[in-house]
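Re: beginner question about structure tokens

> Can someone show what the tokenized structure looks like for a real chain? I only ever see the sequence side.

Sure, here's an example I had lying around. Input first:
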Amino acid sequence: MSEFEKKKMISYKNRSSPREASSSSRTFSSKFASKIRDSDFSDIKQPTILLKNKDVLPEDHTTNIKQKPKDQEAAPIISSKDVEPQPHLKHMRKSLKLIEDGTINSDHLQDFLQENSDFIVVGVVGPQGVGKSTLLNLLTEKKVTEPIKRSLFKSHTEATDDYNNGITIFTQILENTHLDEPTSVFKVESLEDVENCENATQGIDIYVSPNRVIFLDCQPFLSVAVAVDLSESENKRSNLVSDFIPMENSGEIQGLQYTAFLMSVCHILLVVQDWFFDSNIVRFIQTAKMLKPTISNPEDEYSEHFPHLIMVHNKAQMADFTPKQFEVMQKVYETLFQKTKLPFHTNLGLGSGRIINTLKPENCGNKVNLFLIPEINANDQSNVENDVYSGHPPLEELIRRLRANIFGVTKTSLTHVQLTEKTWLIYCNKVWETVKKSPFFVEYTKLMP
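And the corresponding structure tokens:
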């Protein structure tokens, strides 16, 4: 064998086979893995995985899940405890006292008023027993029904007959008490009040209707009962009127103060009387307008407000609804209130021709705010049964049209700023204090007989 072949054979033996190479690599990897397993990993902190039970959606629904926008992801979750409950507005079921014994009460009225500027204030004045509270009760009702008429127009004759019939009638009344009959919002004068020489309304009562109309019912002026009440209590008289006013004039001065107060806080003033016509009533209204003080504001600006004046004749007869008689009434009032600042020609009466066709300007002359309410007897059903025309529309229709005229009137601003119901009550406090401290009423007593 040559030398070349020997070297070739030696190099072939020294070359390793693929199996040996793979076995050698496995040996190296196993040794390396053993070194890795033997190394210490205690210094490395492993992550903690928390598992929570959740409702797993089916596989076919996972693809329909959409990613929320970024604005919605950061939306806070508001609990019911964080939401402030809305205040519940109470509803008046009966009238409350606004002015009593010369003091205005406002704390108990806060829950019935709201921050609303769209409201109307309607006041009523007049002598005793002419139907002021009855008229306001009719205006507060949505519809004048027969039960309402029966409860309001109970004549004194019927009450006297029931009293004279003795205990039998009294027992029947107790057993057959009408629990479903409507209750009056304002207290109506009863036979007992007349016998005791008392007024059903003392001071000024207030009622806030659900449609945001504020009704003010005033005690009668030129009333003997008021004068007797003031003469019997000297402390009460000094609280209501000034000490400088003589006792015999205190009743009339108190009525003038109440009327001047209503002229300052009302949008509409109803003057009620039960016959045509009483010159003392016209004189009283003009005097109250003259003595009404002007109310100043913090900016030293004086605002002079006068309400719409409506003369209401209650218990009108059939002849009063004729064009000739109605024309005479309008001419008399037009002459008496010719120079007044009270809005008296604002198309709120019957002479417009819209309510009764025969009572129109062509037949009755210039229009004034004169409205007629017919005399009603709840026991007289002859007109209903026989369908006899009584010279005027039914009471329900007349009250509905009067209510429409009042609710749709063009309001004049009470102050230089717009008032809400709550700020109106604050304004009433200021007006009443101004009226009580006004020296005009004391000076007027010097001119009284």
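Each token stands for a local structural state, so reading them left to right follows the chain. The first strand starts at residue 96 and ends at 100.
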